[in-house]
Amino acid sequence: MTFDGFPDGKVKFIRMPEPFFSELLPQIDYLGELKVTIYALWRLEHMGGAFRYLRDSDFSGDEKFMLGLAIGMTPEEAESTLRESLQRAVQRGTLLEVNLDEQPIYFINTPKGRAAVEAIQRGEWNPKDGEDVAVALRSRPSNIFDLYEQNIGPLTPMIAETLRDAEATYPTAWIVEAIQIAVEKNARNWRYVEAILSRWQKEGRYEQEDRQSSEEDRRRYVEGKYADLIE
């Protein structure tokens, strides 16, 4: 199996911390550990919300990732490889593991990740249901072109180029949700969708929800020692 090369036009890029290349990469000597580390950095980059973490199922549930992690292995061998790879990343200190309801969740070992783990261990924060954003490796284009045609209007060449630019700038989940909001508000035009995306990029996708949280929650998460948990 060979790689056909990166496609023409704009493609999405993710941010990678410089110490990954200068300090961490030279230390990793197990391919599975390298793959789960890069995948975790990629997946968390595409997630929204103030708190970003992964579960075992986020790795094992991505079929394309698992096929690449455990080429030629049985499902049982693939699960074993995943567990070993995650534990190596935890032991190295790349990922931080904390048990929640007897299930491990993983944070990247950053100041925000360390603060989140400490808050969970002290019983001062618990991840809420509904905070997750569905993300998975894709080999086919997203459906935002169909979504645009079904809800906003005809897909002209200019609009298609605009949508490709948007895909290179924003997470696909954001674009889908912004189009849904435009439909609900009966504002079926791309300028409205783009305004939503631009505001989320500048102010944070969940800023409005954060403003509506209780004063107690604001004191707990926005002020004090856990302030750096907030994006």
Structure characterization notes:
It is a single chain. The chain is mainly alpha-helical and 231 residues long. The chain folds into 2 domains: 18-121, Arc Repressor Mutant, subunit A (Orthogonal Bundle), CATH 1.10.10; 144-203, Arc Repressor Mutant, subunit A (Orthogonal Bundle). It is 53% helix and 6% strand. The protein has 12 helices and 3 strands; from the N terminus they run ααβαααββααααααα. The protein has a 3-stranded antiparallel beta sheet with strand order 1-3-2, sandwiched between helices. Helix 9 (172-184) packs across helix 10 (190-203). The longest helix is centred in the middle third of the chain and has 18 residues, at 75-92. The protein starts with 17 loop residues before the first helix and ends in a 10-residue tail after the last helix.
Secondary structure elements and their pairing?
Layout: H1 18-24, H2 31-45, E1 54-55, H3 56-60, H4 63-69, H5 75-92, E2 95-100, E3 103-108, H6 111-121, H7 144-151, H8 157-169, H9 172-184, H10 190-203, H11 207-211, H12 215-221
Antiparallel strand pairs: 1-3, 2-3
Q: Number of folding domains?
A: 2
Main β sheet profile = 3 strands, antiparallel
Principal-axis shape? globular
Q: Please give the order of strands in the largest beta sheet.
A: 1-3-2
CATH top level assignment of the largest domain: Mainly Alpha
Strand content: 5-15%
Distance between the termini: 40 Å
- SS content category: mainly alpha
What is the total tally of β strands?
3
Relative helix content: 40-55%
The name of the CATH topology of the largest domain is Arc Repressor Mutant, subunit A
Oligomer: single chain
Q: What low-confidence regions span 5 or more consecutive residues with pLDDT below 50?
A: 207-231
How would you spell out the order of helices and strands? HHEHHHEEHHHHHHH
Average pLDDT metric = 81
